[in-house]
Protein 1
Amino acid sequence: QVHLVESGGGLVQAGDSLRLSCKTTRRTSTMAWFRQAPGKEREFVAAIRLRDGTTNYTDSAKGRFAISRDLAKSTMYLQMNTLKPEDTAVYYCAGSDSALLFGTISMYDYWGQGTQVTVAS
């Protein structure tokens, strides 16, 4: 059984930065961040292969967001810079036993409860 717990969300102003954390009870092959804005479908943000740190980003996250992991702490991070109001969403941590860096929801077996990020204009 894998439990994922997100933290670090909050209310920030446009242009601010925020770092999300996701602690896991068991290491999976890949971990990822997804987000879901009100009235919209959950969408992929970024993924990281824990073995070698290889990453994959959605286009909207490239250059502003950075995914990383600390194996000793069993924790994954999402550093978000230059936040925009359209980044407002519930951010979910996900884990997969596959080593492929897919951005597809169905590829992920384990999910956290989510953490709210609100970016005010």
Note: Residues 45 and 71 are 21 Å apart (CA to CA).
Protein 2
Amino acid sequence: QVQLVESGGGLVQAGDSLKLSCAASGRAISSLYMAWFRQGPGKERDLVAEITWGGLPTTYADPVKGRFTISRNNIKNTVHLQMDSLKAEDTAVYYCAGRPRNWGQYDYWGQGTQVTVSS
């Protein structure tokens, strides 16, 4: 059973940076295609960024392109999301997710970490 645990969320001001981390256990993260999702207040959960097994290529949702960077460390079994130039609309619960394929639904989910950006 794969467990994903997010950390690094918090309350920041617009324009600040924040780095989220996701620690995996139960399976080598190198075998998983990983992603970050987010769910804002009253909104559906949306894909933020994805990263392939080896780290490249990466893909991003349009609202975060140029501001967020997804990365992974297969040795430490972690995935990160560096968030720069944060905006109020980035306020959401951020979830780490993984799947063993590069298509289809994500099988494994973390519990989420809250990011609040004040304007």
Note: The first strand starts at residue 3 and ends at 7.
